[in-house]
Amino acid sequence: MRSVPEYRPLPNDMFWEGAVNARWITGAFYRMGRHEWLTDLGWQQMHGDGITRVIDLRNPGEIKRREHDPVVDHEGVEGGADTRTTLGNLGQ
Which bin fits 79, alpha (ψ -120 to 50), beta or left (φ > 0)? Predict the structure, then answer.
């Protein structure tokens, strides 16, 4: 059986609590796995790094909190719920 090599952080990786596969792409663009994994601290860290809007490119049926996702008080996070946007309501 082959061993899996340890992950080596890359210079453009972002370390927001709860974020998986988060990294800076270019300019003001970042990417990461499901934002539902972020903790309150992770949202605060993103905001502290200047992230003011999250655009979710998943299908509406994929965007939901799951049983094991952290419970986050979005109103307590600076920027609140207004920072999250889905692709479907970008034009609104």
Answer: left
